[in-house]
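Worked example 3 (structure in, sequence out).
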């Protein structure tokens, strides 16, 4: 069995949404079943990025709680990320740069892990991250 999960499943794993108790239970059971079978669920970087946006905008999850949730997922045996090192680097950048947003940190981290020394942007905030460069 090889399963990648969508943002809406990931959100249900992380949030006990009272409007979707059946979906929350199904998502948690999926993690339990995958763990028992030794087949971790894959979280793509795109799904992770979208999850951060949903947690922040829909559920009003604060930055520290979101980081804690993502760290917890990194440590959950039934869940694996498309590229753990990128996620870890993005969370590190987010911690080191309090004004940065997660999307920029994830983009810069991924560029770094793909061997790029520069991340060129028109976003002033992103340009302040290591390797970031404001395009003029």
């Amino acid at each position: 069995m090889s399963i990648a999960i969508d943002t809406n499943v990931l959100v249900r794993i992380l949030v006990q949404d009272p409007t979707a108790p059946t979906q929350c239970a199904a998502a948690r059971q999926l993690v339990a079943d995958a763990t028992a079978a030794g087949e971790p669920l894959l979280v793509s970087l795109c799904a992770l990025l979208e999850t951060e946006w949903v947690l922040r905008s829909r559920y009003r999850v604060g930055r520290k709680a979101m980081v804690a949730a993502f760290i917890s997922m990194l440590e959950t045996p039934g869940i694996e990320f498309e590229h753990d090192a990128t996620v870890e680097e993005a969370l590190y950048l987010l911690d080191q740069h309090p004004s940065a947003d997660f999307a920029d940190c994830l983009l810069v981290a991924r560029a770094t892990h793909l061997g790029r020394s520069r991340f060129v942007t028109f976003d002033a905030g992103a340009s302040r991250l290591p390797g970031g460069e404001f395009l003029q």
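Notes: Residues 90 and 107 are 8 Å apart (CA to CA). Strands lie at 3-4, 41-43, 79-81, 119-121, 132-134.
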